[in-house]
Amino acid sequence: MKRLFLVLCLLACTCMIAYAGNKKKQKKADEDTQNFRYELEYIKSAGTGLANVKVWSYSKKPHIAAEQTKKNAIHGVIFKGYAGSGATQPALVRDAAGMSAHPEFFEAFFAEGGDYMRYVVNAVGTPEVMKVGKEYKVSQIIQVNTAQLRKHLEQAGIIRGLASGF
After folding, report:
1. How much is the pTM?
2. CA 98 → CA 61, 123, 129, distances in Å?
3. At 2, is the pLDDT very low, low, confident or very high (cuts 50, 70, 90)?
């Protein structure tokens, strides 16, 4: 009985340590997103209100970088804009203080499993992984519903609507 209890305690401790380590890595990846530590390139239109963008994310673990590409795609459309293949789209939030002006909204929006996932239509293909120094650079083509994302930001009062005038 004591041996079973000891094994269960060791198993529980191991799980807690692994969970804490993954949370720390995820937090570091989220900080990289907020510091614009990713690259974004427009690939092509995927239909009305949809855009395919290629995202390069960086992390010490390739699976974390691959998961972060979705968040980085939405973050890039909102705060960076994108260019490529003869098309340019400016950032939806053009104000430099856009994220700091509405911290509660964006913290909830970009939380794990947050609203940003509603605007990721599809991850096209498999991620491409490259080792760069001590970390990995992972690229993925993400299909983003830019029209619905704009509408959501307008309804939340983050950006002005296109019909509101100048």
Report:
1. 0.77
2. 30, 27, 32
3. confident
